[in-house]
Amino acid sequence: VQLQASGGGLVQAGGSLRLSCAASGSRFPLSVMGWYRQPPGKQRELVANIKRGSITNYADSVKGRFAISTDNAKNTVYLQMNSLKPEDTAVYYCYVYLDPAGLENFWGQGTQVTVSS
After folding, report:
1. Which one, of 111, 95, 117, lies nearest residue 23 by Cα?
2. DSSP one-letter string for 76-101
3. CA distance 82 to 68
4. What is the per-residue pLDDT across 61-106, written as a single tens digit (0 to 9) for each?
5. pLDDT given at position 114
6. In sequence order, what are the beta bridge partners of 31?
7. Residue 61, phi then psi, degrees to nearest 5
8. Range 97-101 contact pairs with CB under 8 angstroms and sequence separation of 24 or more
9. What is the DSSP letter of 60?
């Protein structure tokens, strides 16, 4: 399974960005799709995911500002990021699980999001 992420960039605080991640090469439905991020000098953290196409989960720090969605026909996951803050600055990684436990997992290459104050 290959993942191609896009949509990162530089934005001022309060602005918006939309990340996209297209998955290809899977013969089976994707169980979980989501995003992690890794801020400078910090560990990777979960941002949001969506299970079985409808059950969403968000980190507390992004609730009410970010929205995850999927286009199942295109095997694509999106992350709409609004009201961005400098602390949202990170490399964002998309991922997919082929099974609910994540035993088979695949990751995108990462896309940089920089929020200036």
Report:
1. 95
2. EEEEEE-S--GGG-EEEEEEEESSTT
3. 12
4. 999 999 999 998 889 999 999 999 999 999 999 999 998 888 999 9
5. 98
6. none
7. -70, -15
8. 97/30, 97/31, 97/32, 97/33, 98/1, 98/26, 98/28, 98/30, 98/31, 99/31, 100/31, 100/32, 100/51
9. G
pLDDT of residue 58: 98
Beta strands in the chain (DSSP E): 2-6, 9-12, 17-24, 32-38, 45-51, 55-58, 66-71, 76-81, 90-97, 105-107, 111-116
Above pLDDT 90, what percent of the chain? 85
CB 39, CB 32: distance < 8 Å: no
Return the bridge partners of 4, or none: 22
In degrees to the nearest 10, what's the CA dihedral of 76, 32, 112, 12?
80
Q: pLDDT averaged over the chain?
A: 95
- Coil, strand or helix: which one is 62? helix
Q: Which two tokens stand for residue 74?
A: 């295109």
Q: Residue 75 region, left (φ>0) first, then alpha (ψ -120 to 50), else beta?
A: left
